[in-house]
Amino acid sequence: MNPLLEDFNTAPFSKINVADYKPAVKKAIEITKQEIEAIVANPEKPTFQNTTEALDFTGQKLGRITSIFFNINAAETSDEIQKVAKEISPRLSEFKNDMILNADLFKRVKSVYDIKNSLDLNPEQTMLLEKQYKGFSRNGANLNNDDKDKLRKIDAQLSKLTLEFGEHVLADGNAFEMHITNEDDLSGLPESVKDAAQLLAKQKEKEGWIITLDYPSYIPFMTYADNRELRKKLAIAFGKKGFQENENNNEQVVLDIVNLRHQRANLLGYKTHAHFVLEERMAETPEKVISFSNDLLKKAKPAAEREFANLQNYAKKLDGIEQLQKWDSAYYSEKLKKRLFNLDQELLKPYFQLENVIEGAFTVANKLFDLTFEEVFDIQKYHKDVKTYQVKNNKGEDISILYADFHPREGKRNGAWMTSYKSQQIFNGINNRPHISIVCNFTKPVLSFDEVPTETQPSLLTFNEVTTLFHEFGHALHGMLANTTYNSLSGTSVSWDFVELPSQVLENWCYEKEALELFAKHYETGEVIPMEYVQKIKESASFHEGMQTLRQLSFGLLDMAWHAGESPETINSVKKFEAKAFSDTQLYPDVAENCMSTAFSHIFQGGYSAGYYSYKWAEVLDADAFEYFQEEGIFNKEVATKFKEHVLSKGGTEKPMILYKRFRGQEPKPDALLKRAGLL
Per the count of CB atoms within 10 A, which of 74, 163, 376, 605 is most buried? Predict the structure, then answer.
């Protein structure tokens, strides 16, 4: 029996072979089709219960199987898994289209939607009905048969191309390594980074040290390595993923994706892909997003230009650098930050042992939301590095299972993300609790050459890694505390420009003395982080905020340039188009060998197309929300309970602005963000 087709609670990783995925998906699609057919064939008049609700509860098995598969494809992939992904993605796309374009099914959905005002529905039921109807209408249910066929072909192509895009980026990233044999070339690097590079070389049976494009290797080298030429080599290698003359080149892939998205939007009656996407977001229109971005740009750019000029003067004074380049940014920023605030990231790291930071996040969640986390060892894992936790509330009730996967490996994509293996929903009177996962790429403990962890060098995090952990844990809380009836409205199933609020707001606790004292303790002495360090962390939080804001806005505006233009078919050079989109936000000279778009996984693979602005949008929300906590106390139970009840537990059951106002008592204002960033 295929383990994926059996009934299971937690994912049966140890029983699953790669060969199981394809037949399991095929069978689960058949089962879902039968469930849909039963709804269509129901002789009774369509009602909310026998149509809208029944449809939401279809495809449970398919959802579980695909969530396991695609999570594994991101966190523990292989050539074999990628081959399966290429085979099943178009099939899933085709099935989705079959469902969306099922005229008889849509007829039933529409007949319920048409009488919605006469039904006695609560807000969650109303939202489900509206979301469901729009799910059909926005995906072609109202099209004629010829246009429906066109849509199917476009969706199948897009599914294939987005997969290809990600594979190319991963392959180029994995293919590069910088092999160093002269120790002088490691000047400036912390010992822990050198040890990790040496271990990697040893594992590959080479002498010396190996630096890769994985973040825990790449970022410290760019930040601390004195050798400017090697920083340049590494930066160019990082920036040309998907932009080389090899089989992984993404230039045509990008153009094809953009054109197909545009054609799809036009087919559905929208001016551009951005108009289509934003209709269902808090922002509503591309015009509003571009206006929001340009308004922030206006406030941030003068500060960014001042910061850049100061950094350039500093680099010139220090090392005679006439023109600051991209590979100088992290290096001189860190040096200047250290001089201005006397704050050395390496000095902070001993206070941020990974295990302590995890416990710290758990303690914050306990103080705010009454949650407890117990590591358990009887839940199957997809890799030995993964930790599993049973999450309960203060009444001892099960809230969630949490999987945590913290370290880089060859089959794991870069970055950090939260995902779910099982969504929360209430079915047949039972509240099915979610299984949530966070995946990061933090520095591994320095191991001795026989792979036994040394007691003296556990995994020590940079402060940026600490905020990353809290960020993803914020997403996890959104998933874990979900308490809705319907799976499609549960947890993080909210507008993209609202989804980052829980994650970004939690980062704020990393800067607060009251929170840091809970977990920032020296891994050798147990000493709590000195308060002058805490003060320096707070003071330095807005360091180069203008440049950071400009950088983020540049990505958001590039995204809008790709997706809000009316004639993408006229674009023939990815690089030239990108350069034009960056012209208002550019500080550093362009690097001819590099291109952002060909490796911009967020918008070409990760679901953020026409949505990258949402990080900045959510910052306005998070700064405004945290200001409320600060006014009342960062562990104030009343405010935390409001946040849990009106934001974290509600998922997408009501419009985000309604939920936010219910928590905050007012609409968000950008003042708190501008004040925090030192831009006011």
Answer: 605
pLDDT surpassing 90 at residue 485: yes
Confidence category of residue 447, pLDDT binned at 50, 70, 90: low
Structural domains of the chain, count: 5
Q: What is the pLDDT of residue 227?
A: 98
Tokens of 103: 């005229």
- Same domain, yes or no: 485 and 369: yes
Q: Judge if 382 and 516 occupy the same domain.
A: yes
> Residue 534: what pLDDT?
84
| Parallel/antiparallel/unpaired status of strands 417-422 and 425-427 | unpaired
Q: What is the DSSP string of 514-574?
A: HHHHHH-B-TTT-PBPPHHHHHHHHHHTTTTHHHHHHHHHHHHHHHHHHHH-S-GGG---H
pTM for the structure as a whole: 0.81
637 in a domain, yes or no?
yes
* 472 noted as active-site residue: yes
* 321/427 same-domain check: no
Q: Which of 76, 346, 465, 472 is catalytic?
A: 472
When pLDDT is cut at 50, 70 and 90, the band that residue 676 belongs to is confident
CA–CA separation, 520 and 467 (whole Å): 13
Please give the share of the chain, as a percent, with pLDDT higher than 70.
Answer: 98
Q: Are 439 and 417 in contact (CB under 8 A)?
A: yes
